[in-house]
Amino acid sequence: MAKDRSQRDDYTTPLRRLVLGIIVLCLLGIFLVWRIDSPRVERFRAQVVDRVIPSMDWAMAPVTGTINLFRDFQSYRRLADQNRELRRELRQMKAWKEAALQLEQENARLLDLNNVRLDPRLTYITGVVLADSGSPFRQSVLLNVGARDGIRDGWAAMDGIGLVGRISGTGGNTARVILLTDASSSVPAIIQPSGQTALITGNNSAAPVVDFLENPDLVRPGDRVITTGDGGVFPAGLLIGQVAADPSGRLRVRLAADYERLEFLRVLRHHGAETVTDPGKLVQPAAGPAKSAGTAGAAGDG
User: Fold this and answer.
1) Are 172 and 165 in contact (CB under 8 A)?
2) What angle in degrees, to the nearest 10, is found between the helix axes of 2-35 and 39-52?
3) How far is CA 56 from CA 33, 59, 74, 81, 243, in A?
4) Which of 27, 30, 83, 289 is most exposed, with the fewest beta carbons within 10 Å of its own?
5) What is 123-269's CATH topology?
6) Is the pTM of this model over 0.70?
7) Contact 154, 227 (CB under 8 A)
């Protein structure tokens, strides 16, 4: 057996060397053919490529499929990233939409306020809110202005946009403001554009109730609520807020004043409306002295 193995090795070793030499010569020939710059060799290379490459498609199919699968996976990852980005932008757009709606409502409220012409005789005193004594049974704030500043009971207090309440109790240097949300607050109001009169009554909640409404069918959520001036407590035309409906369907008022940020309040000086005793004088001025004298002379000549 040792002799057979040695004979087999004697035959295989030269054969392997011969095959290796042939492969090296073939590779060298291919290299030389591919490197020779000649028109004939170029045509030969083109013919070889035309015959060999089409028949190699079956061998390249796994490689092509793997490349396509990798590209599809990359495309899927890009789509997933874009989907997450679009969802994030959608959430931001929803937040911006809510902010835009709030700004739109505030802008509309300010525009409505600018269209209101208050009594030019009304002046105001600005006070700083010192303390908030709000409780489940009484809601009021304390200002740093009082009797020494000419503050009187009953005067209206505003935050610059809407009515906040009225003065109820004054000291030398301080004054207390009863808020519209207090249970003891009742304000005569008119609802625009329907012109319905109502009474805005506080109930210790953030939204006072609309009571004694003549025709509720003419009132819609979002209608503007202003003071009528009835009773002589508040001047006419002060903005209170907008009509809103609670889940039970009862009409309430969404106050225009920002009760969460009551830092400064304007106290309106209101000494009451002048009583009209002779309506004719409103459209026809009284006769002057000269005119009266001329009339008397004419009567004497007659």
Assistant:
1) no
2) 120
3) 21, 5, 27, 38, 80
4) 289
5) Thrombin, subunit H (2.40.10)
6) no
7) no
